[in-house]
Amino acid sequence: MVDNIQSALEKKWDDLLTNLQGKMPSHSYRSWVLPLNILDCNDFSIRISAPNRFHSEYIEMHFKDVIKAGIRDVFGKDLSLLIITDPNARKAEIHGSNGVNIVGRVPQKDESAEKDNFQQTYYVEDRYSQLNSRYTFETFVEGPHNQFAKVASRAVSEAPGNTAFNPLLIYGGTGLGKTHLLQAIGHYARTQNPNRRVIYASSEKFMIDFITAIRNNRLNEFGNLYRKADLLLVDDIQFLESREGTQEQFFHTFNDLYQRGKQIVITSDRTPKELKGVEERLISRFLSGLTVDIQPPDFESRIAILQKKATIDQLSIPPEVIEFVAQNINTNVRELEGAMTRIFAYSSLAHTDVTINLAKKVIKDMLGVRKTRHISIDIIQAAVSEFYKVTENELMGKGRKKEVALARQVIMYLSREISGMSLKTIGLRLGRRDHTTVMHACTVIGRKIRENKAFAKEIDAIKYQIDLASS
């Protein structure tokens, strides 16, 4: 019987491959579908393995719909498609409604005994505790730009509600790793106590749930859902701006959890004081704990991030390609990883090696010609000197006049951000200053840009002049 089941599974898989071959371009079929393996199948779902994480994610993004259509054609019904990363996966089992598989008999569960418990836990555990498996502390690359945020997050995850960091608010620009840290806290807290109730939601999700609860007259259920959390993780709190009713509910939820010693962690794209349209009493509570920021990664951190991604996704990337991407993508982590994903996709589809020339082509397509052109510190210095009306001798000297010191710090910051030069190199070019001086300048200017909109416009104007000078 086992042999018959295995034979049936292999026949279905072969039929599915044939079906997909007729639906897809031949190069896509060879590159992305043939490396897949079927693991198991039951009356409701089919599990397929991919050789690495990148392959799995690419299938999810580009070919999941066509594979599900093929499954419908071959199996005669819609099945849930699960794609996992398992380079050593063997072809496993096929489950029928009788619970039989090729390695033995699956113990039958008393479904009626579990039904009530399932109905009680599904809403919270499945819909509100789903954390991305990639977002852990182990996969988070620590650097000077995020070190304090990482340390604070780890401390909170080890003792939720039992530190002075309650609430913990992590703020920073788009794509810098706030969500990664937020979910890493949830993952680690669960490993310490699997029974801990972790609730993760965006502020937008919180608002939608609140509106739905009003419409369905279920405000008590809504309140109980979030207030039963041992650890509440709320992403992008800035979207509560000008949402008075939702702010009222969040205020009461916050108070209830805080009074009972439950941990609250929040992310935002700006400091609490910059949140316009948020009630002062909420701002006050956000500031009552610990507020930490995440800055854009420096050149060395960008290289470390790309190396980590290559390791996790089991990709072989030449060092010169990693360095080139790190130098040209200096905005945020999301775009950095996206560039590497795009390079590898080009390589896979064209059946070519990952080379520096391929990387240049991809980055050029993404950012345009001017952004991939090397910009020297001389160009940056000239633009800053002109803007602040200071001379090169003043910049290289030891003078501490306010406008000279500011111009010097701006040059250090822009040299780091635009050219990706090392701290040591920048310091040497600006009067043989120590790398710690450069690091301090980058921190000061980065903070001033975030907190002072007028100053941020000054920096944008200087960047525009640098862009013109380098074109």
Notes on the protein architecture:
- The chain is an alpha/beta fold.
- It folds into four domains: 2-105, DnaA, N-terminal domain (GMP Synthetase, Chain A, domain 3, 2-Layer Sandwich), CATH 3.30.300.180; 147-294, P-loop containing nucleotide triphosphate hydrolases (Rossmann fold), CATH 3.40.50; 299-367, Helicase, Ruva Protein, domain 3, CATH 1.10.8.60; 377-470, Chromosomal Replication Initiator Protein Dnaa, Chain: A (Orthogonal Bundle).
- Helix content is 58%, strand content 10%.
- The chain contains 22 helices and ten strands.
- It has helices at residues 2-23, 26-33, 53-62, 64-75, 111-126, 147-158, 178-192, 203-215, 219-227, 244-259, 280-286, 299-312, 319-328, 333-350, 356-367, 369-372, 377-388, 392-396, 402-419, 423-429, 435-451, 453-470; strands at 37-41, 45-50, 80-85, 100-101, 104-105, 168-172, 198-202, 231-235, 263-268, 290-294.
- Strand 4 and strand 5 form a beta hairpin.
- It starts with a helix and ends with a helix.
